[in-house]
Amino acid sequence: MYQTPPSVPTREDVPLSVPDPLNPRFSYGGGKIISELLALNFGRKNFERVTVFRPHNVYGPNMG
Questions:
Q1: In which band, very low, low, confident or very high, does the pLDDT at 57 lie, cut at 50, 70 and 90?
Q2: pLDDT tens across 29-48, in order?
Q3: What are phi and psi of 27, to 5 degrees?
Q4: What is the distance between the alpha carbons of residues 12 and 24, in angstroms, rounded to a whole number?
Q5: Quick one: how far is CA 14 from the chain centroid?
Q6: Could you tell me which of 52, 21, 27 has the C-alpha nearest to residue 37?
Q7: b or e along 51-63 (b: 16 or more beta carbons within 10 Å of the residue's beta carbon)?
Q8: SS (H, E, C) 3-46
């Protein structure tokens, strides 16, 4: 879930959701969900393997 997860750190089995699809503040999370779905479903037919990689804090310890 993007934006407000039920707990931090968030487990991998938490369902993806967009709380209010008409709210522009959720467009980032919606875009991430769409791109992952496209990659996984397109990749299922056209690639041997597809991996979704969600990096966080890759620049340094003070990135938030």
A1: low
A2: 888 889 999 999 999 888 88
A3: -65, -30
A4: 25
A5: 11
A6: 52
A7: eeeeeeeeeeeee
A8: CCCCCCCCCCCCCCCCCCCCCHHHHHHHHHHHHHHHHHHHHHHH
